[in-house]
Here is the input.
Amino acid sequence: MTACYWDSLTSPIGRITVEVNTLGELCAIRFPKAKSAGKRNPLRCRTAVEQLDEYFSGRRELFTLPLALNGTAFQTSVWQALCHIPYGQTISYRELATRIGNPRASRAVGSANGANPIPIVVPCHRVITSDQRLGGYAGGLDAKRKLLALEGAAPELF
Here is the structure.
């Protein structure tokens, strides 16, 4: 297992923790109350923290961070597809399943979304149900609403 370094920042959804590995790849974003492993190192996490601050202040729509997406082949395909959902837009779990070439895998896509280790940067909050409901979110539905509102997406969901 690769060593991990972390730092935290205050955001509109609470205090979040950013984790990077020794290669400088973002490997996790943790919501409030989640514990981080490794050693606190603001210098190693600086770029990720800066980009998240820019996102939360409305000055960044696209992240340019190296990512360490460690999961199954299916999870990784879902997480990579999430990165192609434009800022301020939402799609359904069914549409995401279709985009990865498995249109009957809506529930599995939902599970992969829930296992996303790098929320916000890998924007699983942009996926909603086919009937325009929020669905779930590891950080809680209030956090999902706030992230979508920040991006100006789906005002009918609020």
Notes: The longest strand covers residues 4-11. The domain at 73-157 is CATH 1.10.10.10 (Arc Repressor Mutant, subunit A). Strands lie at 4-11, 14-21, 26-30, 39-40, 91-92, 127-128.
